[in-house]
Amino acid sequence: MANLLEPITIGGKLPLRNRIVMGSMTRNRCIDNNKPGRSQIKYYADRAKYGTGLIITEGIFVDWTGCDWKHAPFMFTQDHADAWRKVTDANGAKVLAPSAIKAHGGKYRELPGTPGHTDNIEAITDVQAVVDTYRRSCELAKTAGFDGVELLAQGGYLPQQFLSSRANHRTDEYGGSVENRCRFTLELVNAIAAVFKGPEHICVKINPTDHLNDSVVDFDEMKETYTYLITELVKRQVGIINLGRRGAETSPGSGEFFGPLPRPGGYPLPRGYDPVLDFGKLVKFPGSPTLLMANHDYTVEAADALAGADKLDMITFARAFIWNPDLIPRIIHGLPLAENDRGPWVFYGLEETEDKGYNDWPVASTA
To answer: Which ranges carry the NADH:flavin oxidoreductase/NADH oxidase N-terminal domain (predicted)?
Structure first.
């Protein structure tokens, strides 16, 4: 797996020891008022000490109204930043903090006294106030020691809703044309770049074929929207575009937690369509300032082959890092990866303990 183990530098400024990334995963274990604690420090430090090139933490919500999980973390007070500082201080790897905010209408929530799915849909009247909310959260993330931010623009979260004509019915400068629907995401990128003094500190996570949380759009709109968006992101010289392939035939899904997720009827894709190979060409070209990262159900072997063929720069593994804290040594030494033998409860935890299924996975003897 020599290709994935090669070092790489983001934006000419952020060197990584290899091209393997621990992807963002909601684990629902920040039980101390939605702040990370002892368990999170150990969880991330364990995966950093074995040589992970880049770690992207679980989604950190920029406002409490955006939180759809009971024990997901926040980042909108100095207290939150101070708690996350203990996590970043314990890590030897570069660390990015994802930003997320709720999908307005229809998205799952698990909070006391609130409905399972939101019915009180209210249009955003002051878009700049939302941009400022993101900006403030990113300022706190910077003080907490994060090297940058991954902006989540998929899965039905707010940036993706603005991108979609099915969710975005606005008649102002943020709705209608593809340029208008992309405006909000691009304004967020501009704001984050200003906070971190450079766009190389930004990773934007998108999934053109996504259909989670009713985010699917037809093929023609998808092509137009993401061709424009990716082109504009590269123009802005963002450090990484993290391109997913959920919803495409190439990745039917493992079924480990959500189960099979067939594509909704009426939104067909060309047979064998792979959005990473299609849109990746907009990122991977001579002189491009932006690195291409891919995610969703890749094997180590397939990812290494794509890196060797110059089809991608970096690869995200997520669930494999749960039960393989020593994923990098296993890859280096050609050891088999551990499998999840405990069932789907490990993803989001149990009430009786925050460490069970979280910090109790064994490592291989050579790690």
So the answer is: 4-237
8 A C-beta contact, residue 1 and residue 300? yes
360 lies in some domain? no
CB 138 within 8 A of CB 192: yes
Cβ contact 165:217 at 8 Å: yes
What type of residue is 294?
A: A
The answer to whether residue 134 is domain-embedded is: yes
State CA 110 to chain mean position distance: 20
Angle subtended at Cα 302 by Cα 297 and Cα 306, rounded to the nearest 5 degrees: 115
According to DSSP, residue 13 is labeled: T
Cβ atoms of 202 and 142 closer than 8 Å: no
| φ, ψ (nearest 5 deg) of residue 99 | -115, 135
**Total tally of structural domains belonging to the chain:** 1
The catalytic site residues sit at: 157
Task: Using the predicted structure, report yes or no on whether residue 135 has a pLDDT greater than 60.
Answer: yes
The closest of 59, 86, 82 to 71, measured between CA atoms, is 59
Decide if 242 is inside a domain.
yes
**CB-neighbour burial class of residue 185 (10 A; exposed 0-12, middle 13-18, buried 19+):** buried
Domain enclosing residue 226, as ranges: 8-346
Lowest mean pLDDT across 111-120, 128-137, 258-267, 311-320: 111-120
**Could you tell me if 53 and 96 are in contact, meaning their C-beta atoms sit under 8 angstroms apart?**
no
The CATH code of the domain that includes 72 is 3.20.20.70
pTM metric for this prediction: 0.92
- Give domain status of residue 365, yes or no: no
The residues, ordered by sequence, that sit 6+ positions from 177 with a Cβ below 8 Å of its Cβ are none
All residues at 6 or more sequence positions from 1 whose CB lies less than 8 Å from its CB, including other chains = 300, 301, 304, 331, 332
Closest CA relative to residue 205, chosen from 135, 133, 154, 131:
154
Q: Per residue in 67-126, pLDDT tens?
A: 767 889 999 999 999 999 999 999 876 766 766 544 444 444 454 445 454 555 678 889
Exposure string over 259-290, b if 16+ CB within 10 A, otherwise e: eeeebeeeeebeeebbbbbbbbebbbeeeebb
